[in-house]
């Protein structure tokens, strides 16, 4: 499956769409194919009239050589740039599809969007992460099996504490506050894994009454918004 330059709205930007053509030419070359205008149009699910101006743009940027009626070929600069995009696509596709178990077509679409947004440092870190996770998959590491099982569990996505319901129990997932406020919230007990009870806002809408670690605290709405929680299922 390949990136469609005409895919729907999202993170993709005009430069990214042009890079999709560069990546397609590279993929054809790597596979020993012939990246003709007709072939590229078929692969990218676009018209030949759309391919031609995109290739012209790549020629202007010094990334492609293309004579009229000839077969496009990458310049050395184009080949290196295409390799970078292609590699990032493979890393992201593996992470989303093989590790996280996201449906293949959706995993590919996510990779198509995100491959253009990575820089060299983020690519390197993602590669190290996926390489480590891939090794765990290949070797059947217990921690990887636990992760895979966890990914198949029902997910209770976190939300700011301000969006909780009065009387409901929650578990702290993270605190996004910084500096002095973060230090104070952690000291008050808002540590990841800690249980609390949302006791509702005051009649005027601020502050929020919270029961935590056997005590009661009043948090300003702006403070409570930095405490992210997940619903805690009550047994029995």
List low-confidence stretches.
7-13
- Mean pLDDT over the residues: 87
Count of extended strands: 8
Strand content range: 5-15%
CATH class of the largest domain: Mainly Alpha
What structural class do helix, strand and pairing data support?
Answer: alpha+beta
- Kindly, what is the distance between the CA atoms of the first and last residues, rounded to a whole number of angstroms? 47 Å
CATH level-3 fold name of the largest domain: Arc Repressor Mutant, subunit A
Major sheet description: 6 strands, antiparallel
What is the fourth-level CATH superfamily of the largest domain?
A: Winged helix-like DNA-binding domain superfamily/Winged helix DNA-binding domain
Rounded to the nearest angstrom, the radius of gyration is 25 Å
Order of helices and strands: HHHEEHHHHEEHEEEHE
CATH architecture of the largest domain: Orthogonal Bundle
Count of domains: 2
Fraction of helical residues: 40-55%
Main-sheet strand order equals: 3-8-4-5-6-7
- State the shape: elongated
Count of helical regions? 9
């Amino acid at each position: 499956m390949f990136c469609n330059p005409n895919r729907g709205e999202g993170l993709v930007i005009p430069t990214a769409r042009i890079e999709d053509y560069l990546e397609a030419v590279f993929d054809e070359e790597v596979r020993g194919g012939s990246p003709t205008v007709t072939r590229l149009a078929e692969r990218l699910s676009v018209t030949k009239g759309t391919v031609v101006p995109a290739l012209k743009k790549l020629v202007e940027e010094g990334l492609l050589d293309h004579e009229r009626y000839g077969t496009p070929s990458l310049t050395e600069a184009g080949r290196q740039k295409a390799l970078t995009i292609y590699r990032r696509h493979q890393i992201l596709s593996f992470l989303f599809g093989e590790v996280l178990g996201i449906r293949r077509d959706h995993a590919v679409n996510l990779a198509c969007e995100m491959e253009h947004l990575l820089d060299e440092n983020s690519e390197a870190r993602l590669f190290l992460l996926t390489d480590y996770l891939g090794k765990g998959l290949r070797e059947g590491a217990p921690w990887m099996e636990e992760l895979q099982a966890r990914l198949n569990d029902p997910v209770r996505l976190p939300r700011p504490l301000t969006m909780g319901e009065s009387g409901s129990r929650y578990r702290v997932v993270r605190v996004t506050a910084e500096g002095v406020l973060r230090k104070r919230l952690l000291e008050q007990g808002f540590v990841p894994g800690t249980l609390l009870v949302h006791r509702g806002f005051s009649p005027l809408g601020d502050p929020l009454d919270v029961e935590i670690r056997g005590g009661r605290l009043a948090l300003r709405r702006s403070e409570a918004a930095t405490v992210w929680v997940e619903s805690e299922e009550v047994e029995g």
